[in-house]
Amino acid sequence: MSENATAERPKRHRTITIDENAGPPRATARVCEAASCISGNASDVTARLRELTAGQGDIEIKRVGCLGLCAAGPLVEIAETGEMVEEVDPENVQPVIDALARVRPDSTRGEQAPFFERQVRVATENFGKVDPESLDDYIAAGGFQALRRVLSEMTSTEVRDEITESGLRGRGGAGYPTGLKWTTVAKANGEKKYVICNADEGDPGAFMDRSVLESDPYRVLEGMAIAAFAVHADEGYVYCRAEYPLAVQRLRTAIRLAQRADYLGDGIMDTSFSFNVQIRLGAGAFVCGEETALISSVEGRRGTPRPRPPYPAVAGLWGSPTPINNVESLASVPKILREGPEGYAAIGVGKSKGTKVFALAGRVVNTGMVEVPMGMTLREIIFDIGGGIPAGRPFKAVQTGGPSGGCIPAEHLDTPVSYETLIELGSFMGSGGMIVMDDTSCMVDVAKYFQDFCRDESCGKCTPCRVGTTQMYMLLDLITKGEATENDLAQLERLAGIVQKMSLCGLGQGAPNPIFSTLRYFRDEYMAHIVDKTCPAGVCPISKPAEVVA
Description:
Elements: E1 27-32, H1 35-38, H2 42-52, E2 59-64, E3 76-78, E4 84-85, H3 94-101, H4 114-117, H5 135-140, H6 145-153, H7 156-166, H8 178-187, E5 194-199, H9 208-215, H10 217-231, E6 235-241, H11 245-260, E7 276-282, H12 291-298, E8 324-326, H13 327-339, H14 341-345, E9 348-349, E10 352-353, E11 355-362, E12 368-373, H15 378-385, E13 395-400, E14 406-409, H16 419-424, E15 433-438, H17 443-457, H18 463-480, H19 486-502, H20 506-510, H21 513-532
Parallel strand pairs: 1-2, 5-6, 5-8, 6-7, 11-15
Antiparallel strand pairs: 1-3, 3-4, 9-10, 11-12, 13-14, 13-15
Helix pairs in contact: 6-10, 6-13, 7-8, 7-10, 9-11, 10-13, 17-18, 17-21, 18-19, 19-21
């Protein structure tokens, strides 16, 4: 494939025809139809609003992707004023009708709530603005401009250089520099190369990838196409969990419409560059989020990891060089290539550039999707954006990084969030789950929960993970029942070290992290269970009174 894909071909790509006589609507209600709000009958809200406003040409009822504030769904935003109508009932949409009636020709957007004001949108810049299944909406929002620039003005080397200059790092967990990964693939030997989007999101409490695919699927496809051009690939796969039916549906629609409009397929945008995308559905195995297990699954084999090296960038899908990037990483690419790398690189702190999307969940007022600049503190995320702890209860810890992450206590709330600082605290970034806990959470029980998850999800290929996670769970179970000794605790620590060092892949290597972090910051709770035979939070079986038999 040539460095610059420009060639003479008949023009087939899509353009938007604007009716100059139509004019913009006076008022627009944007109804969130992401999975969370749909579960609260948001689709019925849309239908009812359209029924009541039928014939009113100056009012538009528009379905959009995630508006972010999942705790308040079904959620409707009035586009002209920014007013948010929360918890809309399909049987009573009058608050939305009233908000639409308040819109005037001179209406301006009011002040945003802290939940929205403190966020910086890159991967989620189209959230709540575009219809996820409308190609025209995506194009009107600047969609495929980056791909057009890449194909008409840039070489593959220049694309890789700009991604490197931006400082974009993998948002799937490890934080590997995206530009370096693409460069490795581009320079690797192999006539055939592939691109894979890892959408196998399995962390408890995580829903970032799902929301991006549900809300802005064209953006992910554009990022994949740019990645393919950068590494000289012509074929790509999205590996997505079958448990995300809405994301899969909208992704399929986006692929079909993008192909018809000449943004995917052969000879894209009248050039010699071709790129085709297929979807592969995962069966819910958490281990398939590990890149070599994912590759095995795409190839039609059992999803188990293999030793590395060689890394997928050198020998990936069917032995060919393959960059594997997660959904958020690819969703960040179009904005970087559309506006230049400098703006992205200016956001963040140290080696952690740009923004990070978090799924804010647990004991926090404003649960939902947030995208914040790297370097924002945990306190700002949890209290300023998240609204703090319900009922004014004290904050106890926040768990980041999923089952391989750690629990960070209150004394570190003012830590700026970055790849490096979280590792220093005994946790890590992970894909972006952020679970908040108050004083009603038992940290031993939390460690037990994540260990139970890891033992269930272990593929069983290597003994340290297969046996070790089960043994660690059994020791934690003894502790929560008040049946453990200090020797058992010492054995737990020794075993955790062995599992971490000897396991084949990241699942086993990361499984002990919740144990290490809770022991580091909350050892007193372990000792209370072992020595005092009590659970300070009143959660574990040891604290529950025996049943009185009459």
